[in-house]
Every structure is written in C-alpha cells, then in structure tokens.
Design goal:
Elements lengths: L1 H4 L13 H11 L4 E6 L1 H14 L4 E6 L5 H6 L6 H10 L2 E9 L2 E3 L2 E5 H9 L7 H12 L6 E7 L5 E11 L21 E7 L3 H13 L8 E6 L1 E5 L5 E4 L2 E4 L4 E14 L5
Parallel strand pairs: 1-2, 2-13
Antiparallel strand pairs: 3-4, 3-13, 5-7, 5-11, 6-7, 6-10, 7-8, 8-9, 10-13, 11-12
Helix pairs in contact: 2-3, 6-7
Length: 273
C-alpha cells in the first residue's frame, strides 16, 4: 500500500528481541525519516526508544496489528484500516508527544506495577486468546490471585506516602491493557504524567473497580487516587518487576524515579487529529 502511494519504501521483519532497535537504527542511517511500526504498543515503544536515543528528528508511524494497540486509540489512528494508516504515513502530518523515562527505558503509553504486571505475566501463559480479549481474560483471573504490594511514593518532591497497593500506573496516554481507560484526562503533550494508584482491596471491590475502569469512571472510587506531575519517586521493599508499554522489566534497585520527557518524539497522526 505504501509503495502504491509513491515514494521510497523499504521494510524489515523482526525475528528476535532487539530487532526493532536494530532495524530502526539501520533505517535512520540510510536516511529514512518516517519509521513505521506494524504491531502493537511494545513494537511502537521499541521503535520510539530507538528514534529518541538516536537524536534524529524522525517520525514514528503506527499500524495497529498487535495484542494491545492502546497508543493508537489515544492518537485517533484506526484499527483494521490499513489503507487509512498508509495514507496517514504518506501525508506526513505529525505531532510531538511526551514520553516517560524509567531507568534507561522510555515509554510512550504507560508504565505499570503490581496487578498490571501480574496480568502481563499471566497473558504469556495463555495461548488460545489474542487481542483485547486476552488482557481482559487475564485481568479477571488475577483479580483473586494477586496479593497486592507495599510502596512509598512521592510526586514532584512532596513528602513520600506509604501505601498498600493493588496497582500503580504511570500514564502518558489515556488507555492501557487493551481498552481500559486508565487516565481519561491524560494529555500526550502537557509535559506531565498521570499517576493513578489503586489501594489494595477485597475481591468484590476489585470486581467493581474493574467495571469502573472499563468505563473510565474509577477516579471517583475512594480506593483510587490520581495525581499529575513531572516526576515520581518510588521505594519498594525489593527491586520490583514493572512494564513499559507492555514490555516486562526487572528493576535494578528498590528505589525508582520516573520522569516526563516533554516533546520527546514526533508521531504521524491523522490531519484532523
């Protein structure tokens, strides 16, 4: 489709971890300045990381074709419409979006701890589902399995608060987990991150919160707190597992800082967006 629209087009196919970064670096070295990721949030995050680290003013194009494609939802990029996605790439209309940074990873959509990680780890064991339904199924399974976790957190240098949590999500965009409206008011260009924390709670309340999360009305629940800031400092009992855009990581330390990086990346979007 891209070739039919005109212009020089080249492509590469990933076969192993790290290929997204390698292929992106090779394309940038050859002079390409529109790098299109056909996949989901993990693919776009890996390509975006490579562009940001290169320092080259290149734009990321998104073609939804992965397990979770939540960043595309926040940017108005259509799913299951390859012709429209190709025209968005050809037109070259872009906007700058922020990124978050944790350790040496940038994230475009969200970073998550706790229940979020349990769902991702569970999804790797389920071979018979895909797409948005996979995340919903695994989330329901983990509602009664995940025990919760303790953490101290401080936003923008305030005094830290210790809490027993079910989940902590640091959102750059509005949606995660295949359609959960985690931060309905998040702005990809405001230079800040939305910190959404869920206190640990019994199973029946977890089920209620899950329903609210799907509708984007969870913010009114007493167990949910939302803050917006440029930096979040966290202290865990031990180095935690966490995810950035669906990619699993193990922290090097029990102390972590997450920062907003304003205007970190150009992304190709519909002109009307």
């Amino acid at each position: 489709m891209l070739q039919a629209l005109g212009g020089a087009v080249a492509h590469g196919i990933t076969a192993a971890a790290g290929d997204c970064a390698r292929l992106t670096a090779e394309a940038l070295g050859r002079g390409f300045r529109r790098i299109v990721g056909v996949g989901g949030d993990g693919t776009w995050s890996n390509v975006g990381n490579a562009i940001i680290r290169s320092g080259v003013d290149a734009a990321l194009g998104l073609v939804p074709a992965g397990t979770g494609c939540d960043l595309a939802k926040s940017l108005g990029i259509p799913a299951r419409d390859l012709a429209r996605c190709a025209r968005i790439v050809r037109d070259g209309h872009s906007r700058r979006i922020d990124a978050g940074r944790i350790e040496d990873h940038y994230f475009l959509n969200v970073a998550g701890f706790g229940f979020d990680i349990a769902v991702i780890e569970d999804s790797r064991k389920v071979q018979y589902l895909g797409g948005d339904l996979l995340y919903l199924y695994c989330a329901l399974r983990q509602l009664h399995r995940f025990p919760g976790f303790p953490v101290s957190l401080a936003v923008d240098g305030e005094a830290p608060k210790h809490r027993e949590m079910l989940m902590l999500v640091v959102a750059n965009a509005r949606i995660f987990g295949g359609g959960f409206k985690i931060a309905p008011e998040a702005d990809l260009g405001d230079g800040r991150l939305d910190v959404v924390s869920f206190a640990n709670m019994p199973l029946l309340r977890r089920l209620s919160i899950m329903g609210r999360l799907l509708r984007g009305t969870h913010g009114r629940a007493p167990e949910v707190a939302s803050r917006r800031g440029r930096r979040l400092d966290l202290r865990f009992d031990a180095p935690p597992a966490y995810e950035t855009d669906g990619e699993w990581h193990r922290a090097a330390s029990a102390d972590l800082s997450i920062e907003a990086v304003p205007g970190a990346l150009r992304v190709l979007v519909p002109r009307e967006a």
